[in-house]
User: Fold this.
Amino acid sequence: MLGQRLALVGLATVGVASAHAVNFTNITVTGTSFGAISNFGANGITVNLADNFLVGTGVKTVTITYRVDAGAGMLLSGLTVSPVGIAKDGSVKIDVDHLGEGVSNYLVTAGSTPVALPSQNFSLSGTQSGYDVITTITLNGTGASSVNKATLYNVSYTEAPVPEPASMAALGIGIAALIRRRRR
Assistant:
């Protein structure tokens, strides 16, 4: 019985030791009032955009900046943008700029029938453990009956382990062998 308890404690310790979470810092929101910033699972954040809606013709923009860092021994490999809102007679555009990596573009355009904003996945190079990020949400209304809004902005990140030096060396040797074989 004592052996089983020690085994369970050992398994729990391994689970805790391998647990990691993405860390968000330096979060700022400009262009709208916002309610709160909270965790969106272990690897994401939610920004409550209290008044980020546009009725009628026009353009409204909000900017969210933050620093995102992967857990220890991990690299950032992707992200999922999951806004909550609608587009009607206009568009909701979200540009997520990971400085040094490039911009991921999200766009929902709708006619007279309202369209709920879906989630969208994006890939990152998987070569960096952290980024400074500038997210720009642009609401564009094209007519008097336009109703475009993003009331919550959710973003979550996926991670991949940092490759071991031995694995990288084996991969390099394999690639060199393939190149040499092709030349023959």
In short: The chain has two helices and 13 strands. The first helix runs from residue 2 to 18. Residues 1-19 have pLDDT under 50 and may be disordered. The helical segments are 2-18, 165-183.
